[in-house]
Design goal:
Number of strands: 5
GO molecular function: RNA binding; structural constituent of ribosome
CATH architecture: 2-Layer Sandwich
CATH class: Alpha Beta
Distance between the termini: 68 Å
Number of helices: 4
Protein name: Ribosomal protein L22e
Largest sheet: 5 strands, mixed
Radius of gyration: 16 Å
Pfam families: Ribosomal_L22e (PF01776)
Number of domains: 1
Keywords: Ribonucleoprotein, Ribosomal protein
Strand content: 25-35%
Family: Belongs to the eukaryotic ribosomal protein eL22 family.
Length: 116
């Protein structure tokens, strides 16, 4: 049998809207992922298995040959937002099968419902 090529897992977080408003720092988020991402139950164990890359200030991509869940990246993103007190303004939404997007809460709609 031919040797199997390792399956590549890729998750992208699009933070263009929040980064353009200067409330989200993609570089700080990338560093947060480097520090907190666990491989085989241990942090600082990324090695060659996991690559975390930033595309300008708009996208952060996690690519791995080790299986991990998309939900884990969402968990770390929420943890980052909570740490920097952005959780009240931003939320993490799945935009498609392999990516997330940071969006603002729709505050105007909530204010109208409270007035009625």
């Amino acid at each position: 049998m031919a040797p199997q090529t390792p399956k590549i897992y890729k998750v992208t977080l699009d933070c263009a809207q929040a980064a353009s408003d200067k409330i989200f720092d993609a570089a700080a988020f990338e560093k947060f992922l480097h520090d907190r991402f666990k491989v085989n139950g241990r942090t600082n164990n990324l090695g060659e298995a996991v690559k975390i890359a930033r595309d300008g200030d708009s996208k952060v991509t996690v690519t791995s040959t080790v299986p991990f869940s998309k939900r884990y990246v969402k968990y770390l993103a929420k943890k980052f937002l909570k740490k920097y007190q952005l959780r009240d303004w931003l939320r993490v939404v799945a935009s498609d099968r392999n990516s997330f997007q940071l969006r603002y809460f729709n505050i105007d709609q909530a204010a109208e419902e409270a007035d009625e």
